[in-house]
Amino acid sequence: MGKVHHIKHQETTVTAIKANDEQVLKKIYTENYKKTEVFILKNSGSMQQAKDTYQEAFIAMWQNIKEGKFTPKNESAVQGYLYQIAKNKWLDVLRSSRFKKTVLVEETAAWEAQEQPFPESNEKEAQLAKVMEGFKQLGPDCRELLKKFYFEKLPLRTLATQFEIGEASVRNKKYRCIQQLRNLIQPPTP
Amino acid sequence: MNSPQITQDEFETIERYLKNEMTASEQEQFQQQLIEDPSLQQKVNEVRMLIDGMEAATLKEQLNEYHKEVGSTHSKVVQEPNLITKPKSNRTLWYSMAAVLIALFGIFWFFNRTSPNEKLFAKHYTPDPGLPTTMSTTSNYSFFEGMVDYKQGNFKEALQKWEPLLASTPENDTLHYFLGMAHLANEETKQALPYLEKVSTMKQSSFISEANWYLGLSYLRLNQPKAAEKVLKRSDLKESQLVLKELNP
User: Fold this and answer.
1) Segment B7-24, tens digit of pLDDT
2) Higher pLDDT residue, B76 or B123?
3) Does A105 sit within 8 Å of B58, measured CB to CB?
4) Which residue in A8, A110, B72, B178 is deepest, having the highest Cβ count within 10 Å?
């Protein structure tokens, strides 16, 4: 896989993010963390909360770019977007029950209403969280295979060579792993 | 969603559809099927969710890896003071002991200097942490800009931004409350009084208890325990009751 070393154009940033290019993702992650951390620490958050919030925001950013909901013009647009999501997520935490007073103020309520530039369907987020939780519980073999296929986007043929089995076996194994994942998630019947 | 059976064939077909790997005619046929069979749409939604979730879960694992790198730079910063405070010679040890003695002396002097009411103030006063701030709206821009200053401890700047707002919103309890807070934090207790008094008369304000509490503390700082008692009784904060008890042991 060819690595993109210099990101200069919109095309490359978006394409690299969509392709889960390790170097690009890592660069965006490490270069922008501090800013979010400072914001959260200054606003009564802990280092752990800063990390969790930032990672949630990072995944949301990545998801929205992948789904075409957000098309950044350049890398700094990605940075601004990421910071904005993290900030909003943290403000949501601050507005939640733990900090009641801030919710009661009438003024803030009006200003809150406009404060959702990135509407997220909660149901979708909850389902996604369930799948992510189930994935963690899979065996290491399944996790490895699914990671290579869905995240690294390696073709089945390459996987067959890596696991030293036939292409059809990889395909079957992948299906079995997904069945396992579905069983782990066990969606409640309405 | 309850999950229907998805066979391996179905799964792989749906996957090819989602990844845009179908030929045009195949895609058209599949879309027709989608219209005719609502259960297929449900399956497509589930497969999409599964693929998204697996990808996101893997990304999350990666993020924890990336985080180790930002983490290492941080711990260096955190540990730095440790190295500095370690005394390298006997002389620095003596210096630091002398500094501690002077500090203790200072604290001793400070506590002897102040009245019991001021002590009570110092014991219970913690500044209001302020409101969360964002910069995205225009209407309250100056107010929240002032809030940023307030939270950073630049009370004078906060006051400069807030005071002009009084003209357009003379009945705004939030504004009055934080004007009082900024004066109090800036050790201008007398200037804080009128603002807090005003909020304490606004029965509908969500700040009424806090306003009475800080008003009581202000009177303590000014060594007027009787006035303090009167307003503290109007506040239903736990701390108010505590201070009242200390005033009348």
Assistant:
1) 999 999 999 999 889 999
2) B123
3) no
4) B178
The model's pLDDT over A136-184, given as tens digits with 9 standing for 90+, comes to 999 999 999 999 999 999 999 999 999 899 999 999 999 999 999 999 9
pTM over 0.95: no
- Whether the predicted pLDDT of B233 surpasses 90: no
| d(C-alpha B144, C-alpha A108), whole Å | 10
Of B56, B62, B151, the CB nearest to A132: B56
Yes or no: domain A10-113 corresponds to CATH 1.10.1740: yes
Amino acid symbol at B57: A
**Angle in degrees, 0-180, between the axes of helices A122-137 and B38-85, rounded to the nearest 10:** 70
Rounded alpha-carbon distances, angstroms, from residue A22 to A9, A28, B54, B63: 18, 10, 16, 10
Nearest to B215 by CA among B130, B153, B207: B207
Between positions 66 and 105 of A, the ones with CB within 8 A of B are 87, 91, 94-95, 99, 101-102, 104-105
Instruction: Give A 27-66 residues with CB within 8 A of chain B.
Output: 29-30, 33-34, 42-44, 47, 51, 55, 58-59, 62-63
Q: Is A134 on the interface with B (CB under 8 A)?
A: yes
* Separation of alpha carbons B199 and B180, rounded Å: 9
The yes-or-no verdict on residue B237 having pLDDT over 90 is no
Across chain A, mean pLDDT equals 82
Instruction: Judge whether B236 is closer than 8 Å to chain A, CB to CB.
Output: no
State the fold for domain A122-185.
Arc Repressor Mutant, subunit A (1.10.10)
Give chain B's domains with CATH numbers.
1-85 (no CATH), 123-247 (1.25.40.10)
Q: What is the pLDDT of residues A95-139, one digit of tens each?
A: 875 655 544 333 344 444 434 445 556 788 888 889 999 999 999
Residue spans per domain, chain A: 10-113, 122-185
